[in-house]
Write a structure and sequence with these properties.
By secondary structure, the chain is an alpha/beta fold. It has a single domain, classed as Vaccinia Virus protein VP39 (Rossmann fold, 3-Layer(aba) Sandwich), CATH 3.40.50.150. The protein is about 30% helix and about 30% strand. The chain is built from nine helices and eleven strands. The protein has an eight-stranded mixed beta sheet with strand order 4-7-6-5-8-9-11-10, with helices on both faces. A three-stranded antiparallel beta sheet has the order 1-2-3, with no helix packed on it. Helix 1 crosses helix 7 and helix 2 crosses helix 3. The longest helix has 14 residues.
């Protein structure tokens, strides 16, 4: 059986060469780019991040600017998960961190099963460029096609946090790793754009049914030496859609920038 369950009848899905199929005959085609679409609501419109944001994020991450963060996430997963663990990246986007986790654990001799779920099929289309070792599904992280108590770790990086759903799929001794921006993350970028920059709102770490077992902070400076890198960073953030044309022009004229990266990492377990 695969790591996924049927979104229609909630029974296990068997993966074949081209499809996922359940015992009740519900069948889901595997896309050429390697993911399966298990999103029940197929209404028209944009699901998840748009192409501009996804391309910018892929370009930015491929240049290694968040590699320090990615390594710390991998170390955290490695610390808490043993050989053969099943790890779920909830809101995986184009799978930079998902692929890094798989490759890191493999180098450490831990043959993990790594799953990625995201609502954007556009984002998942980039994953195959990184590795074909992941199991990927288009689905909502608020209603995941994953069996209850079947994963050892849920990783949630800059994505909506669904405490109840994450707890449902987590084994009793499993962990949830949550990654979020600290107050002054990308502060210098904001100073360049806005007359009065603002701090990121504080993230409430209290979640019903979960207890915090570890906290970490990752802080470092990033040096951007081309306008292309600056614009890739800008376009992958929500600021791009909230900024007027005149303020955008400030960035378009910038040739270099030193900017702080500041992240929080919280590890939860079930109470």
């Amino acid at each position: 059986m695969s790591s996924f369950i049927c979104p229609v009848c909630r029974t296990g899905l068997l993966k074949t060469e081209k499809t996922y199929v359940c015992e009740n005959g519900h069948s889901f085609d595997i896309a050429k780019k390697g993911y399966v679409n298990l999103l029940m609501s197929q209404a028209g419109g944009q699901h998840g991040d748009d192409k501009t944001m996804i391309v910018a994020r892929a370009d930015f991450l491929n240049r290694g600017f968040y590699d320090i963060l990615s390594r710390r996430i991998c170390e955290c997963v490695d610390e808490h998960c043993g050989h053969g663990a099943r790890i779920l990246d909830a809101g995986c986007g184009e799978c930079k961190y998902t692929a890094d986790i798989y490759e890191y654990l493999t180098r450490e001799g831990k043959m993990a099963e790594v799953i990625g779920i995201d609502i954007s099929k556009e984002a998942l289309g980039y994953a195959k460029r990184r590795t074909n070792k992941l199991q990927l599904a288009v689905a909502s992280t608020a209603d995941m096609p994953v069996e209850s108590k079947s994963v050892d770790a849920v990783v949630n990086i800059f994505a909506p946090f669904s405490a109840g759903e994450f707890s449902r799929v987590l084994r009793d001794d499993g962990i949830i790793i949550r990654v979020y921006p600290l107050a002054r993350h990308l502060w210098e970028l904001k100073e360049l754009i806005y007359d009065v920059p603002y701090e990121n709102p504080e993230t409430d770490m209290e979640e019903q049914g979960l207890c915090v077992v570890a906290r970490y902070e990752v802080k470092y400076k990033m040096d951007f030496e081309t306008n292309e890198d600056i614009m890739s960073l800008f376009k992958m953030t929500p600021y791009f859609y909230r900024t007027g044309d005149e303020d955008k022009k400030k960035l378009e004229r910038a040739s270099n920038l030193t900017c702080r990266a500041e992240f929080g990492i919280v590890v939860y377990k079930k109470k």
